[in-house]
Amino acid sequence: MPRLNPSTLLRRLPFYLRQFSSLPLPSPPLRSHSYSHPSPSRPDPFDPSTRSHPSRSTLTFTSDPFDPSTLLKEDPISLCASLWVSSFREPSSTPPLSSYLSRLELWLLAYQKAYADDTGSYLPRSNIPASTIHSLLSLRNAVLDGRFKWGNRLTPFIRSPRDPTDPTTLSKRKLKVFLTAPGPPPFQDKIVHEVLLLILEPVFESQFSSKSFAFRPGRTAHTAIRTIRRSFAGYLWYLKGDLSTLFDCPKINLVLNALIREIRDKKIVDLIRAALLTPLITANPMDEALKKKKKSRKYQKKRVLADDEPKPDPYWLQTFFGFAPEEARKQFDWGHCGVLSPLLANICLDELDKWMEERITEFYKPSNTDTWDREQANISWPEFLPTTGPDKTRKMDYIRFGAHFLIGVRGPRADAAVLRKQLIEFCDTRFQLKLDNESVPIEHITKGIMFLDHVLCRRVVYPTLRYTASGGKIISEKGVGTLLSVTASLKQCIKQFRKLEFLKGDREPDPQPCFRMFHATQAHTNLQMNKFLLTMAEWYRYADNRKKVVNFCSYIIRGSLAKLYAAKYKLRSRAKVYKIASRNLSRPLKEKKGQSPEYHNLLRMGLVDSIDGLHYTRMSMVPEPDYTPFPGGWRPDHERVLVEYIKLTDTNTLEELRCVIKDEGLITPQDSVSMLVWSYKKNAYLFPTLEETDVDNEEDNLVSSAEKHGGFAFVGAISQRSGEGP
């Protein structure tokens, strides 16, 4: 049993007094010296027979609020699932969140997530020590009592498993540096972030618009591109805007007002308000200038990472992060909000999404001569649009990825200009954000619209349309229409490669050697670049020119590695590298003076052919673009499962199903099984058991009926079954 310090005993003293005051006192002893049992009306609490039968005793013990074992009653995953279900069942009503904030199960789950993010390894619940659970309980009580402070490094309730530093053991100089130097947020702040995210995300995900993507579960850049391919085929004018400046210095009142519209819980609102208002520790520019002036040492010993310390990102992942599109390059980080910042940004911009949905409904004006209709479009080829007359359907659509939005307008340019004016006024009124015509340009589809590193353009096609006439005859006609093309931007790809120093030049890109991999082996270098190429092929999965752009990336990487190997093994030119290592650089390279140590080791171990060659060295190796039809009204898998579960558990849905089955004259499988069981039970008592004479009579009747109809084969089968032979 862990020892309790005096402060813990004083805090638990009222609880123990209540427990002992509820104990019944034994009856006073008799005057005689002989021992006598207490009276039956007041049982003895120290009698073993009484304690073994709780029904005979009047002892009533309540759960200790300071004991974590009594507070961990439910599974945290099922607790989160119940919150998701209740939020999606009634999106308009917010459940009470204070009860979830006090659940220790959620705090334990948040600790596991923060631990995995901090150390890079998952910690099972059974491996969490008791001291950590007590620290989590203290942190929870501090949050509920209002004693928690963001950014507290001096006296934290719980420390990171990778940070054994105890501030009480530091000197004054080190303590000053520890408290004033900028650094990552304290570990206990990350736990509170995770708890708030577990509570707030289900509530707002059920209310967010389906037009918004980014920083939401299941709604990635790929789903945004597929939505554009399906829904933006017929639009001529496009409006593009960037609201990132709104969140560079967020207005606290704006964020809190958007939060208070849906959340009325004072504790949660006060926590987020304190996270926004608490100042951050920033670096002094003078100190940074002094550090730059200091000369670096000639030799710095490499530090060996500990087993529980997270490893840095591999080179291929760092390279791929350099290709992040402009819309996803900037992540929100406000004050001490941490991972809550993207959620709070979506809460603020959700008002813009709802306003645009109203404009879409008001703008819609169908035309009888325009055959384009999104709901009746060809599902297998949604990006194709047949030609129509001059009178077109006035339609509009909208999509938002983070702080960037894209609006498509089908109609005259004047309608797009009116919408832009309304949008600028709305942002000025609601967000206090000053926009102008240059920040929200109007562009025609023929010029190409850049969004998420993909270019939206239109080209005229002449497909052969085949359809079945009324008489069943298949008719083929030559059609004409426009096709929405979603292609990867090769210009943007070259720009990113130049930024990463993989090539130089604009018109004729020339690969440059990748000297960061100079000290790595050939097998490791090829493996890193193959992972990068596979990731690039997946990123451009839905682009029409996927084969071209991925093959170009492979050409740049292959040329860069060939120059690197030529410098490393002193082979002078790329041609000599390709001659020795083949086109995909899969063969081990040799130096001038015999075999390289790497090749010698591989040869000794019998692993000469273990070096993987580069992928996609030929365009035929690159996979085809993915044109899988994107369904209308798409929802992520977790939302679809939630909606189906809520629908199946609704009593009205079951009644509707029963009514439909009854009207159609069908029966359910349960009713069918019940009828079979009931008929079996009923017939078992009505019909007597068959005897041997009855069986012989039945066989004779079958044989006579078979001979009458000429069924000799059937007669032989019956005779063989009765044991008489054929």
From TrEMBL:
InterPro entries from the UniProt entry: DNA/RNA_pol_sf (IPR043502), Domain_X (IPR024937), GrpII_Intron_Splice-Mob/Def (IPR051083)
Species for this entry: Rhynchospora tenuis
GO biological process: mRNA processing
Gene Ontology CC annotation, any one: mitochondrion
Domain Domain X: 486-582
One Pfam family recorded for the sequence: Intron_maturas2
Low complexity composition bias: residue spans: 30-39
Region (Disordered): 28-62
Protein name: Domain X domain-containing protein
